[in-house]
Amino acid sequence: MSQFDDETRLSPAGEGRYSGRVHSCYNIGGNPNGGYLMALAVSALRDRLPQHPDPVSIGIHYLRPGIGDEACEVQTEVIRAGRSVSTARATLLQQGVARLEVLATMGALGTGESGTKSSEADAVQRLTIPMPSMPPPEQCVARSGAAQGITIALLDRLDIRLHPDDAKPGLLPEARLRGWIRFLDGREPDPFASLLFADAFPPAVFGLLGVVGWVPTIELTVHLRSRPAPGWVLGQFSARDLDDGRLIEDGLLWDSTGRLIAQCRQLAMLLKRS
Amino acid sequence: MSQFDDETRLSPAGEGRYSGRVHSCYNIGGNPNGGYLMALAVSALRDRLPQHPDPVSIGIHYLRPGIGDEACEVQTEVIRAGRSVSTARATLLQQGVARLEVLATMGALGTGESGTKSSEADAVQRLTIPMPSMPPPEQCVARSGAAQGITIALLDRLDIRLHPDDAKPGLLPEARLRGWIRFLDGREPDPFASLLFADAFPPAVFGLLGVVGWVPTIELTVHLRSRPAPGWVLGQFSARDLDDGRLIEDGLLWDSTGRLIAQCRQLAMLLKRS
Questions:
Q1: Do A263 and B241 touch (CB under 8 A)?
Q2: Which residues of chain A have a CB within 8 Å of the CB of B221?
Q3: pLDDT in the model for residue A122
Q4: Is residue A133 helix, strand or coil?
Q5: Do B103 and A61 touch (CB under 8 A)?
Q6: What is the DSSP letter of B22?
Q7: Virtual CA dihedral for A134, A140, A144, A149, nearest 10 degrees?
Q8: Cα–Cα distance between B259 and B55 in angstroms, integer?
Q9: pTM for the full model?
Q10: What is the pLDDT of residues A64-86, one digit of tens each?
């Protein structure tokens, strides 16, 4: 079993409840990564809805920071069990207090290999956003916590390589970031990995503003588009809308074949470095 | 009282429950509009959280179509009452069955007039997406149900004027739509109107594919950015990602001063015209 599968494993505890542990090996500084906590909570819904094991559209509101190396409970409720998709909610608690709340549509994602199964207009089978051109991973810059002055335990799990043109905090004309990502232990990507990858890159706003401190997520939505092929995943993130201290960051993920596998957007607070 | 305020009014029914009515005057064809149902459900949260009356980040998953001219109940739960924002959920039921589920962060939006109150990096107070150039409303094309062959009761409440270059179903090189919107009874926009306006335009995909039938929303997220100034609101919508019959549509709303007031994104199913 891969590290990620092991570290997002939950045990049924009856009545839609699951027990597990938030591992500290996905921490950024002192806090567990939000994408990891999302994958952990959604793994409970995968167990609740075996006919719809894939996340399709996940909305998560972060209530309080998680606690690394501490037990957690996930409470789930199936809101509607449907034919093609199901809708459910999950609350992740630690020390008896809710840390995040998830509202999810679960289903079954395609690989895109057999063409569309839908009844959409015959003329157009697919619209998509093409993968940007990128230097290969070996010509990119490894993510590190040095610029932020923090320890990023997550980097013991994930290999993250940033576009050399983008790894320049405070020196870019816009808030953008492109980079490769994969698991260090060789686990191949899947839709649960996409949840983690959606929140594992440095904030795109660092490129424009420099390292401005903690950027805690208020809300994160991930739309899963396709099951990824094996290999590196490419992420592209941008922030064009900062108002009253609240920032929107948009993200796109492509698999190694160039197929778009996820779109994500988060609302975050931009806090001054303390 | 304006029509919209009257038609989104709920009465407390004890224990976080509210009773009201889904009016048919926001129908598109036979179904109540999704933005109207969202505003109705979120109005219950405004009552629950008087210290945080504005929607800030609203995620909604649509479970089943609503029923026009039929009673509804909204069940609410406050998940976290915080200092700057609060998080809550709401379920809208009709005939005893859940129709939609909302997960919301509520707060207090600024008007942007007094500058930012946040502690963000001093160098950049705001990033924003500029309003596109648009002909004035009187040179635009009124939305109608003729092309879709349906009656749009919503157009007895809302004045919607489309950019003449975009009101050409099936003839555009991309899936895009720009248009003006306001209430017909003169009610000025506010953050609740932004919820309605986020889902009141024709699907942007019609521009590229033609009128392809019903495009039911699975999930809609609206991030409210600022309290709108009086006057017309401008919407811009685009769809660049259709895969396996599921479409993502992005939207932006600006007020009459050109200030960005909302960003929205929905995941919808593209169904063949029956």
A1: yes
A2: 59, 219, 221, 265
A3: 46
A4: coil
A5: yes
A6: E
A7: -90
A8: 17
A9: 0.95
A10: 999 999 999 999 999 999 999 99
Span B218-248, pLDDT tens digits: 999 999 999 999 999 999 999 999 998 999 9
How far apart CA A176 and CA A185 sit, in angstroms, is 28
Q: Are A260 and A194 in contact (CB under 8 A)?
A: no
Q: Which residues lie across from A248 on neighbouring strands?
A: A241, A267
Judge contact between A253 and A198, C-beta under 8 A. yes
Residue A172: its chain B contacts at CB < 8 A? none
As a whole number of angstroms, the distance between CA A102 and CA B87 comes to: 12
Residue type, position A96, single letter = G
Q: What is the pLDDT of residue A149?
A: 87
| Nearest-CB residue to A244 (from B89, B118, B124) | B118
Cβ distance of B101 and A103 shorter than 8 Å: yes
Quickly tell me which residue has 């809550």 as its tokens.
B88
Chain centroid to CA B79: 23
Is the predicted pLDDT of residue A113 greater than 80, yes or no?
no
- The secondary structure of A54-93 as a DSSP string is EEEEEEEEE-S---TTEEEEEEEEEEEE-SS-EEEEEEEE
Look at B127 and A221 and tell me if their CB atoms are within 8 Å.
no
